Amino acid sequence: MQSCVIIGAGIAGLTAARQLVQQGWTVTVLDKGRGLGGRLATRRLANGRADHGAQVIRATTVPFNDWLTSADGQAALMAWPVDPVGTGWVGRDGMNRVAKQLATGLAIETGQTVVAVKADGTGWRIETESGQSFRGDALLCTIPAPQALTLFVDKSNLLAPADQRALQTIQYDPCLAVLVALDQASQIPAPGGLWLDRPDIAWVADNQQKGISPDVPTVTILASTAFSRANLDGDLTAAGQQLLAQLADWLPAETITSVQVHRWRYSQVVQAHPDPYWRATTPLPLLFGGDGFGGTAPYDPHLNVERAFLSGRSMADWLVAQSA
Fold first, then answer.
1. pTM (2 decimals)?
2. Which residues form the Amine oxidase domain (predicted)?
């Protein structure tokens, strides 16, 4: 039986894992976080919920639309009429629900930070900060390209110059996400999600109107790229307050009961690799994928999840074909 280790439990890693398992592979997914989903992220906030990563999912390809509209996809999704160019989908109780649906039945090890990757006569050996070791015939890496370069070049010295150049082409913008709980409904216009053409704020969403936080009003604010870059390593609390002051008409200060600020260092892809994955020139199968692969500029943030899904599917297809 073929085996595979996947680094990263975002949608690319989970999609690949699920497809490989369906083909009879033994698969282990590793992720450094406590939960699943990567930027399919939902956080508890004052007994409410707030999505603080991907905000809307949209499909432009048949394979991804087929999954979204399948019984499997619909168990995790509901429509949100916020996307002017097509049906927008969101997780039924937050975006993380989509990741949990894909993860059903998979072997996933969370809280596992990979510190070294080695190849020997029996396959890949992946060592983690906890002292554990995982083995596989094949290895997929779906973490952001800058993190992959650190792991596979700086720490493990495994990649040829051509492989390094391929990953170096992938570029991301950062994003600060501000999560707010309120003691009454916000004044954000229906349907509750707006792309804002403001110097400091890119997006604002009312998670109660969105349908994921019915009992407690919560709001997600995504800062602009310029504001996020300027404040990425600064005082996040002060940055959050600065953004809230600009939305006082919709979020009066006296109604705010809780505020959290989350830093995404690798949020929005601004330059992707043109192919859905990259196969490294290593003796054993090593593939890199994720939302930094596939598609052409400009990169619609609503399509990040689709690119990741297609990348994960393509990597699994390649491995299955090679093992046939």
1. 0.96
2. 88-317
